[in-house]
Amino acid sequence: MLQIQKSRFTRQTLSLEEGYCLKVVCGELPECIPDTAEVPAAMCIPATTAIPIGAHLSVPIRLENGEVYGTLCCFSYMSDRSLGEREMQMMRAFAEVLAGRIDEAAAAEKLKQRESSRLRLAMVAGTPRMVFQPIHVLSDRSVAGVECLARFDLEPKRGPDKWFEAARQVGMGEELELRAILNALPALGRLEPPAFVGLNTSPELILSGRLSPALEGLDLSRVVLEITEHATVADYGALAQALGPMRGKGLRLAVDDAGAGFASMRHILNLQPNIIKLDMSLTRDIDTDGARRALAKGLISFAHEIGSSITAEGVETEGEFEMLRRLGVDRGQGYCLSRPMPIEEVLRAAVA
C-alpha cells in the first residue's frame, strides 16, 4: 500500500493504521476536510493534534482492475476553508496519473515474467540451436575454424540479436549467452585440430566469472572469444584482468565489426586482440569502392603492425574475395565462401 501525506512546509509520514488514509478508503473520513476541528473522527486520530493537521485532502489511487493501491494525500498545519471541489479534481487527476503509471509498471513486470519463463523453458528444451560458419584462409580457401551462431526456432520470428536483446531486458542476457556457448562447445571436439571455434560473448559475461568455468579443461588455443564493436566496456582494466588467465592458456581474443564505429578502435587499443574482424560494411563492394578499399587497407596495415591478424566478414562475391586477398587479409567468412550450417555439414565439407 502506498501512503503519501505531505505537509506544505515539511515532509511527514503517518502510519497506515494511525493515519487518515485507511479511514478515507473505508469511508470513515471524507476525502476533503477543510477544517479537521469540525470532524470528530479526524480529531480522534492522535496525529491530528500531534503534528498538527488543520486541513486534509485524500483520494484513493484506484488501479484499472478496481483495486485500491493506496491513497494520495496532503495536509496543512492550519485549517483552510477555501478547499473544495476544484482541489479535489486536481488530486483525482494526479491519482489517475499515478494509477496509470502503476498499471504500466505491473503490465511490464508481468510481460517480463512471461518472457523469462518462456526463455527458460526454451533453454531447457535446447534453445538456441547452433549453426557454424566456416572461416577460410584466403590464400588457399582452407577452413581455419568456425564462428558459432545462435538460431531461435521460437515465436515470434525475429533475429538472434533481437532475442538476445529481449533476454537482456528481462535480466537473462548472460544466461542466454552462456547457454549458446555451452551448446556450441561440443563442436570443438568434432573439428580436426588446429581448427578453432569462435564464440560471441559480451564483456558482462566475461566479468561475471561464469565463462571461465565453462571453458575449463578445453584446449583454449582453439577457442576465440569475439567481442562486438557494439558492446559497451565500462572498465577495460577489469575486462583485461578477467581475460588474462584464459589468454595465458592460449585463448585468443577477436574484436568484431571493426570499422563499424569508434568503439571497435577503443576495444582494439585497450584489449590488444589477436584477431580484428573487418565489418561487412567495409567488405561490401570493396572491389569497386575506392573509399572502402582505402579504409580497409589502413586497418589491415594497422592490424599487422600490432601483431593481429585480419578476418573479413560478409564476403559475398568473388570480386570481394580476390580484392581482400590482394590487400593482405588473412581469413574471411561469408556466403561466397560458406554459409552457416550444422556442424555435420562442416565436417562433410572438410572431408570433401
From TrEMBL:
It comes from the Bacteria. CDD domains: EAL. SMART domains: EAL (SM00052). Residues 112-352 form the EAL domain. GO terms for molecular function: cyclic-guanylate-specific phosphodiesterase activity. SUPFAM superfamilies: EAL domain-like (SSF141868), GAF domain-like (SSF55781). InterPro entries: Cyclic-di-GMP_PDE-like, EAL_dom, EAL_sf, GAF, GAF-like_dom_sf. Signal peptide: none annotated. Pfam families: EAL (PF00563), GAF (PF01590). This is EAL domain-containing protein.
